[in-house]
Amino acid sequence: MPSPLAGTLPAPDKLPDIPALLAAYADLQPEAGNPAHKVSFGTSGHRGCSLKRTFNEAHILAITQAVCDIRKANGVNGPLFIGKDTHALSAPATQTALQVLTANGVTVFVEERSPFTPTPVVSHAILAYNRTAKGAAQADGIIVTPSHNPPTDGGFKYNPPTGGPAPSSLTSQIEKRANELLAAGNKGVLRLTDKEAEASGLIRKEDFIGTYIRELPSVLDLEAIAASGLRIGAEPLGGSTLDVWGRLAETYKLPIEVVSRENDPTFRFVPLDHDGKIRMDCSSRFAMSALLRLKDQYDLAFACDPDADRHGIIAQSGLMNPNHYLSAVAWHLFQSCKEWPASAGIGKTVVTSSMLNRVAKALGRKIVEVPVGFKWFVPYLFDASCGMGCEESAGASFLCFDGAPWSTDKDGPLLCLLAAEMMAKHGKSPAVLYKELTERFGTPAYSRVDSPLEPEKRALFAGLSADKLPSSTLAGDAIESAITKAPANDASIGGIKVSTANGWFAARPPGTEPICKVYTESFLGEDHRKKIESDAITMLDAMLK
Predict the structure, then answer these.
(1) CATH 3.30.310.50 occupies which residues in the chain?
(2) Boundaries of CATH 3.40.120.10 in the chain?
(3) Does the pLDDT value for residue 226 go beyond 70?
(4) Looking at domain 15-207, does it have CATH number 3.10.20.310?
C-alpha cells in the first residue's frame, strides 16, 4: 500500500540537510575492509550517499583515476565530455573528477551555457564528436548523476566512445581498479588543485546542449509540432532540463510552456513518491501529482527526471504507463521512419511488455530482447540493428531519420517531444493510439511486486534453469519457454523468465537489495495475471530451496 504521505509535498523538517551532506562528502572516509563502502558499479554506475560513506570524495578520486587508467589502456585518447545533474552531491563530485582528469592530461569538455547537462546530451555529444573524428582520437564521457534517486544520493557513470552506458566487461575493470586505489589510500591518484586544473588549459567550454538542440530535426519532426497548435506543458522536476525546454521552444517556435523553474537540491517542490520518500521519478503518479493536477490546461504534458534519461507522458486521460507509451512509440516510429534499415528491430528488455512483441509481428520487425539495463542496447543502436531500444522503467532512445544513431543512452527529452510529434501527425494522443493497439492485439495486465529475499536464496538464482521448473503449466496454460539468458545476446538475465501463449513472469534480484523483483503480464485480464503471480511465487519458493 502507498504511504499516506504519497503525492503530498515533503514537510520542511523532512527535507535533507544539504550542508551536512556536502560536509560529509569531503570529511567522511570509507572504512577500510567494509564491503558496503567499496565502489560498486550496478546497471547505472556507482551510487551512494556521503552520509553513509558510500559516495565521498575518496570514491570519486578512485573512480576517476580508474577511468583514466582504463581508457588509456583501451587506447581512448580523445577528449572526455562531462555532465552533471542537479543533485547536491553532483557539483562537488564533478569538481573532484575535473581535478583528476586534468592531472592525467585528459582534455575535458564542459557545458558552456548551463551548470547542468542532461545524460542524453552527453551521449549525443560523444557520438557527434566521434563521427567527425572519423577514427582518430575518440571521445568518451562521464555523467555525475544518481538519476531519479532521492536528494541525498550521488551517482557516477562512464560512457565509452559508443556513447551509451559502459558494458559490464568495462565497468568491472573500472570497479576493480577503483577499489585497488581506495584500498591503498588513493596513493595512486593523480590530482591537481582547482586553480591548477583551471590553469591547465585542459578544461574547455562548449555549448553541447546547443548542439543537441540544433541537430534535433534529424530525429524529430519539429515543424509538425510547431504547426500543431497544441498546448504543451513541460515540467523539469528541478532537473537538468531546466535550461533545455525554454531554448527548444524559442529555437523552433514550439508551443511549450515550462511549468516550473524551481531549482533546489532538497527537491522540496516534488511530491513524495509511493513510499513517502522524495524521488524525482517522472513515471510515478505520486511524484507527478502536481503536474497531473494541471493536465486539463494542456493537450499534452511531460517531464524528465533530474538527469533527463527518463520520460513521463501525461495525456488528458492521465499519466501513461511506460509500457503503454513505448508500444505506441514503436507503432508510430516503424511506420514513419521509412529510411530505417529493413533489418532494424525493436529492442526491449526481458521485463518489458509483450505488447511490443505483437506490435513487432504486425510490423514485420524482429524483437531484440536483452537483459535489464540500457547498456545492452548500446551496440544495437550504434550499428542500427535496432530502430529503438526501450525498457519498462521509462527509458528509451531511437535512430535518426536516416538510420544513424542519435543517442545510445536513455533520452527523456527525445521521447517527450516524440509524444508531441505523434499528436501533431495523428491528431490523437499516444494514449488513444495505445487504446487502438489494445483493440487490435489485446489488453495486457502488467505488474511488478518486490518480494523479500534472504541472502542465501539470492545465491541460488545463479543456478536456476528450465529443467528445475516444478510445473509444466503457468496459470493453467502450457509453458512454452523458460529462459535464464536473453534471446538476443545469450547474456544472463540474472534470474528466470517463464512464458506461455497468454502471459509470462520474470524474477530477478536487483543489485544488492534484499528483494526479488517479480514481473507478471497476462493478455487474459487482471485475474489471470494474479494467478500467474501466485504460481510464479510458488514456483520460485520450490526452486530456491
Answers:
(1) 445-543
(2) 15-207, 215-441
(3) yes
(4) no
The DSSP line for 343-392 is T-EEEEETTS-THHHHHHHHHT--EEEE-SSGGGGHHHHHTTSEEEEEET
Q: What is the pLDDT of residues 108-142, one digit of tens each?
A: 999 999 999 999 999 999 999 999 987 789 999 99
Relative to beta strand 232-235, strand 300-304 is parallel
* Helices 412-426, 119-133: crossing angle, 10 deg rounding: 90
Q: What DSSP line would sit under 292-330, residue for residue?
A: HTTGGG-SEEEEE-TTS--EEEEETTEEPPHHHHHHHHH
- Domain 215-441 falls under CATH 3.20.20.80: no
The three cell numbers locating residue 518: 517479480
Between the alpha carbon of residue 343 and those of residues 127, 363, 366, 413, the distances in Å are: 22, 12, 8, 26
Q: Residues 378-392: pLDDT tens digits?
A: 999 999 999 999 999
The per-residue pLDDT for range 36-68, each reduced to its tens digit, is 999 999 877 999 999 999 999 999 999 999 999
- Other CB atoms within a 10 A radius of the CB of residue 43 amount to 18
445-543: CATH topology is TATA-Binding Protein (3.30.310)
**C-alpha cell at position 132:** 567527425
- Give 285-338 pLDDT, tens digit per residue: 999 999 999 999 999 999 999 999 999 999 999 999 999 999 999 999 999 999
Please list the active-site residues.
147
Residue of 499, 540, 541, 495 whose CA lies nearest to 520: 499
How far apart are the C-alpha atoms of 237 and 308, rounded to whole Å? 10
Sheet bearing 232-235, strands edge to edge: 256-258, 232-235, 300-304, 311-315, 318-319
- The phi and psi torsions of 5 (rounded to 5 degrees) equal -90, -10
In the three-class reduction of DSSP (H, G, I as helix; E, B as strand; rest coil), residue 243 is classed as helix
| pLDDT of the residue at 512 | 62
Entry field: residues in the chain: 545
**What is the C-alpha to C-alpha distance for residues 370 and 481, in angstroms, rounded to an integer?**
16
- Asked whether the whole model's pTM tops 0.70, one would answer yes
At 483 the three-state DSSP class reads strand
Letter for the amino acid at 237? L
Compute the mean pLDDT over every residue in the chain, rounded to the nearest whole number: 96
**Chain segment 498-524, per-residue pLDDT in tens:** 999 999 999 998 866 778 999 999 999
Residue 58 CA, chain-centre distance (Å), reads: 26
Look at the block and give the residue holding cell 550496478.
Answer: 42
Amino acid at 303: A
